[in-house]
Amino acid sequence: MKLITAVIRPSRLKKVGNALEAAGLTGLTATEVQGRGAQGGRTEYYRGEAHDVVFRTKVRLEMVVADEQLEDAIDVLVAAARSDDEGTIGDGKVWVTDVVRVVRVRTGETGPEAV
């Protein structure tokens, strides 16, 4: 089993969620986060004063998938998260981590059955 973690633009969350669901991939957690990367910060103006915004608001997605679903899940996620055919700075990142054990609290099931 693998944990897929992605940081994407908030505006792409609905599209990513719909694409994953259409591909038969369920069980997604989304959290609003702030961070910075190649996109860097920006300057915003409030009541005529400039304020440097160092961190950008993003959405962190996490989902556990069976090993055989990994490549399909990543392909669907990346395609839906990309802002256009070429992609642009700030579209996000995806990384994969091994999952040693999963337990479904309600039933006590473990392993792939718990996913």
From TrEMBL:
<dbReference type="GO" id="GO:0006808">
    <property type="term" value="P:regulation of nitrogen utilization"/>
</dbReference>
<dbReference type="GO" id="GO:0030234">
    <property type="term" value="F:enzyme regulator activity"/>
</dbReference>
<dbReference type="GO" id="GO:0005524">
    <property type="term" value="F:ATP binding"/>
</dbReference>
<dbReference type="Pfam" id="PF00543">
    <property type="entry name" value="P-II"/>
</dbReference>
<dbReference type="GO" id="GO:0005829">
    <property type="term" value="C:cytosol"/>
</dbReference>
<dbReference type="InterPro" id="IPR015867">
    <property type="entry name" value="N-reg_PII/ATP_PRibTrfase_C"/>
</dbReference>
<protein>
    <submittedName>
        <fullName>Nitrogen regulatory protein P-II 1/nitrogen regulatory protein P-II 2</fullName>
    </submittedName>
</protein>
<dbReference type="InterPro" id="IPR011322">
    <property type="entry name" value="N-reg_PII-like_a/b"/>
</dbReference>
<dbReference type="InterPro" id="IPR002187">
    <property type="entry name" value="N-reg_PII"/>
</dbReference>
